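Example 429, ligand D-malate.
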Amino acid sequence: MSETVKFSYGGKDFELPIIEGTENEKAIDIAKLRAQTGLITIDPGFKNTGSTTSSITFLDGELGVLRYRGYNIEELAEKSTFLEVAYLLIYGNLPTQSQYEKFTREITTHTLVHEDIKKILEGFPSNAHPMGVLSSLICSQTAFYPDSLNPNRSEDQLTLSIVRLIAKMPTFAAWAYKNKMGHPVNYPDNSLDYCSNFLNMMFALPVEKYEVDPIVAKALDSLLILHADHEQNCSTSTVRLVGSSQASVYASISAGINALWGPLHGGANQSVIEMLEAIKADGGDAKKYLDKAKDKNDPFRLMGFGHRVYKNFDPRAKIIKKAADDVLGKLGVSDPVLDIAKELEYAALNDQYFVERNLYPNVDFYSGIIYRALGIPTDMFTVLFAMGRLPGWIAQWKEMRHNGEPIGRPRQIYTGAVDRNYIPMNKRG
Ligand code: MLT
């Protein structure tokens, strides 16, 4: 008999099963709670509520562990590539040489986008945030590939949609940036690797040759690996929820991009640099802002510190911190904003106020710094987060569909007005 939880309510005794995962995580299965007791549970933000079982990503917030399909993030960041990790997340195992060559070849041959995408781009003003452009362009793929509208059409159709998403995401991202800059777009160059192709589409100009720095391309590839999945975070839960209605994979991913945009989620890396730039503009006194962060009467809060799930440190942050130090050194980057970041980082790692509250630098703090050092414009940081998270979103959407999960439809506890009769307007007080 599996473990159960027993409780009494309304003078009756009840018993619900406990489920246990492969990493010994346990949950009360409440599927029959309402039928047996009339009760539901409530948990705003779902801090104590699991939405699904999943075999894709495991994280341990206390121990700072993050694994994709059982492989530690540290090893993947050091030894793998983003496209190999994308294959691992989506198909469950590391690819053989022939599987990898087929996967990357298909992606390479689908990087080009329909010329009509330019007409959609022309409709956006130059001040359009690239995340809004990106989510629109991804959703527009339902128009260019109407066969994708039925997510249950066939495995071959889903595989083609997956390839198109991964292949075209860098093109859309770079074109969103070019639209903002008022520069002509660059077409994909299929002789380049995934990250070099993106950097070339981003920064090449008709008036000067752009040479991709291999240090920058490698650092970007590692950053994409580190952002590839993170269990049931806000944007991934959004992708699964939208997909549970049997909306297309493009519509589901577009919804995920919009959820990621928020400054409390993927937008945090942009907010980190904006915070650092504001501190610099105010004289660059990091200690002044550290004191403001400690003052409970001061609305200022440090962006890029602490994490909802990791209680001691974010394993991705440790890897990115090393990569940031490495890249800044190799590129010889000197930037007063980054100097301020170093002061804040030192304080957060040594000042008891921050240490006691686990306000350590997180993945967004260091990714904002390294993206800036790589020459990525600030409002493109979250776009890069989306590029990295794409294979995770795809893997989670695919798992939800293949598991035949029902449409997501949470319940509520009603707290509004009770039964009232309609009063004609001329009789209202
Ligand atoms: C993420 O990687 O999605 C962020 O750390 C947010 C989260 O996991 O809640």
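Summary: The chain has two domains: 4-50, 80-404.
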